[in-house]
Amino acid sequence: MLHVSLAGALVAVFIAGAMASTLWWMLHPPSSFVQRLAAEAEHQLERLVGSVIVVFSADIESGHMMALAAKLAHGERSDLHAVYVIDVPFTLPPDATMPDEERAALDSLGAAEAIAMHSGVNIRTDIIKTRNTSQAVLDLAKREKANLIVLGSYRDGKYTGAPLSSEIEEIAANAKCDVLIGVEGKHGTLLVDESQAGPAASQEKA
Amino acid sequence: MSSDNPQLRRAVTPWGSFSWGYSDVGADIFIGLGLVLAYAAGASNFAFLFAGLVYVCIGLAYTELAAAYPVAGGGQYFVLRGLGDFFGFVAGWAILLDFTIDITLFAWSSVDYLSQLLPPLLASIHPWTHFTFVLGLIGLLCALNVIGVRESTAFQGTVAAVDVLSETLILCFGFLFAFQPQILIHTMHTAWPSTFALMQGTSLAIISFVGLESISQAAQETQRPASVIPRTSVVLIITILIYAVGYSNLALGMQLWHPLHDVHGHAMAFWQLFPGNGDNQGKGIALLSAQVPYYGAIAQYYVPILGAILLLISANSGVFGSSRIAYSMSTSKLLPSVFQRIHARFRTPAVSIFTFCGLAAAVLIFAALPQLDHGARAAYDRFFHGEDGVTFLGDLYAFGAATSYSFVFIALIALRLADPMTPRKFKIPFNIPMRFRGERVEFPIVAVIGFIGIFSILIFTLITHDIGRIAGPAWVIVGIALYFLYRRGKRLPLFRSQAHDWRSAQTHILRNAGELELMDEYHANLKASDERRRAAQP
């Protein structure tokens, strides 16, 4: 006949308590200085990528930055919002149909959706028509309470010699959130493995 | 933190560090319980408590040293650093004995645990099958380590987690539903052993606490070792102490779920399963878990398998531990450079692995001989009072551990006096402040108590174990002879040490360990010490 003794019960409780508390203590060592630095940086990153807007336009090529934003968003479980901004000239009414630009916007946003899907990230896409690209992006960021605006630099062939376009400079200067600008390197090799570029790249350089 | 030489990656987390040690020490109680109950009978809990208190001192010493000197050499390195080349060799050689015996003993016991579910593996009934299986396991471990296949850290961590949970549940269920204090008192009163048997039991109890070395071995790969190792070591000490003292008291004071009877039909106490029964001695926890009310219904099926896996992991830690120590000793010019040789294809220290697995196989033959051959049985009965295989292995294991731990205590004292500049993030309590060579130092009282404790266990081993008293010292003497031959051949000092730049070495160690704050503290201590010395000069 089995019966529970008080001494046995107390020992059992002591063993269970001692094991649980010592293991918990072991698994929670105090942080070192470098770990605190790392934690602070990670915390800032979380704040940075809570809600991310990726900007495309006829002048701004953001494909590679979209890939980077998707990776960031995947790690931090952020929301992505890709917008293609169509600059409507004053010679046209604000709601004018611009089939070529709209077609380019659909391509860019389609690619953005594919990148996001590949990274397993939720994404919203929008096309905005505006008279002023930078103001439209700033307004959107304010309305969406974005934490980060991600954008690339000029498209190939539109480089005018200025470090950045006036739109990008305006966005960077006036945004109330962080702005991440991907400027391609001297030979346009950002995120491209030079060793795989092959002879074509060499000829291009020559 | 770049370097020309590739460094070990610091990937071992706090749980990883714990499971490294637990895979080694945690497996010990699986063997130790049965052996100690066989000899110390009603005083088994006392034997475990005494050995456990010594183990606490050992654990504290290892914790302080591993946190201060987070390198892969472990005890051998501490002794080398504290006492010089010769004693560093003796300590390392004793640890090598332990790791070699570890391979055989744990492979042997792993098969014993499997025999609980597979009776054809019982050593007493099918000795050749048992022997062949153990030899096969040693061969398998040797081959896997030469090829470079190791159980993953994740697997090791999972087995450790399952085992911690399982052992805790067995103890909790056992104490809750089966423990009766009056049975414990009765057993201690009626089955208290002779002094000789108690000394035998105590010397075997220390084998339940061998393996802290593994945490020190992994120090170089542990994240922030100076912070993490003290915690993992302290938790390991507490865990193993709870298990050893808990299991021994439960074994002596439990009301059996399935009453046991001897061949005459008389009721038996649980501890009476073990004296003179080699089969049972090797699988104490499996037998006990089956007697735990309710939980035993499940435990009796999985504990033998879990025990066999944990014991096999522990045997494997003997293989790579011995090759690591041999490599470390070889780089310190304590062993020939052949032990540094790496296999061209597999990139593993094949010579070391073959050497120590070969020695483990030789030890196995010696241990298994009495059960394989009647003539050998008669000789063992005549000269060694009939010690059986698992006891013989336990003897040597206890001898190696007690010898190396004795040196570690002396090294701790020496390093406290000679190297007070190294920051000690963990320091053993109870110290006497004093001045030594112009520096303020703290003399560790616990190290002295621990040394007395472990040295007395060494003496118990030599007095009470007929094979251990011959084979253990013979191992040390042969090792010293080989050491002298090697050092003479290399024109190196025999008793004195080579020149070492410990200051640079310590900076290098702390930098590689990622303990940058401790490195700054070390440099500040050195600077202050140098200034004091300059100021003291006329």
Characteristic key phrases:
heterodimer, A: 206 residues, Rossmann fold, 5-stranded parallel β-sheet, 7 helices, 7 strands, elongated, B: 538 residues, mainly alpha, Amino acid/polyamine transporter I, 2 domains, two-stranded antiparallel ribbon, 70% helix, globular
Rg of chain A (CA only): 26 Å
- Rounded to an integer, what's the Rg of chain B over CA atoms? 23 Å
Number of strand elements of chain A: 7
Question: In which range does the helix fraction of chain A lie?
Answer: 40-55%
Structural class of chain B: mainly alpha
SSE sequence of chain A, one letter per element: HHEEHEHEHEEHEH
| Count of helical regions of chain A | 7
Q: What is the number of domains of chain B?
A: 2
Helix count of chain B equals 21
Beta-strand percentage range of chain A: 15-25%
CATH H level of the largest domain in chain B: which superfamily?
Amino acid/polyamine transporter I
**CATH architectural type of the domain at 50-186 in chain A:** 3-Layer(aba) Sandwich
Low-confidence stretches of chain B: 1-8
Summarize the structure.
The complex is a heterodimer of chains A (206) and B (538). Chain A has helices spanning 6-27, 33-48, 63-76, 99-119, 133-144, 166-174, 198-205, and strands at residues 51-57, 60-61, 79-87, 123-130, 148-151, 153-154, 178-181.
Please tell me about this protein's structure.
- Chain A has 206 residues and is of the alpha/beta class.
- Chain A has a domain at 50-186: Rossmann fold, CATH 3.40.50.
- Chain A is 50% helix and 17% strand.
- Chain A has helices at residues 6-27, 33-48, 63-76, 99-119, 133-144, 166-174, 198-205, and strands spanning 51-57, 60-61, 79-87, 123-130, 148-151, 153-154, 178-181.
- In chain A, the strands form 2 sheets. A 5-stranded parallel β-sheet of chain A has the order 4-3-1-5-7, with helices on both faces. A two-stranded antiparallel sheet of chain A has the order 2-6.
- Chain A is elongated.
- The relative contact order of chain A is 0.14.
- Chain B has 538 residues and is mostly helical.
- In chain B, helix 6 (127-147) crosses helix 14 (296-331), helix 13 packs antiparallel against helix 14 (296-331) and helix 18 (445-464) crosses helix 19 (466-489).
- The relative contact order of chain B is 0.18.
- In chain B, a hairpin with a 5-residue loop joins strand 1 and strand 2 (267-268).
- Residues 1-8 of chain B have low confidence and may be disordered.
- Chain B has 21 helices and 4 strands.
- Chain B has helices at residues 14-25, 28-40, 44-68, 75-83, 85-115, 127-147, 153-177, 181-190, 195-205, 213-217, 225-253, 278-281, 284-290, 296-331, 350-372, 374-384, 389-418, 445-464, 466-489, 502-512, 516-536, and strands at residues 260-261, 267-268, 431-436, 439-444.
- Chain B is globular, with a radius of gyration of 23 Å.
- A two-stranded antiparallel ribbon of chain B has the order 1-2.
- Chain B has 2 domains: 20-500, Amino acid/polyamine transporter I, CATH 1.20.1740.10; 503-538.
- Chains A and B meet through helix 1 and helix 2 of A and helix 1, helix 7 and helix 11 of B.
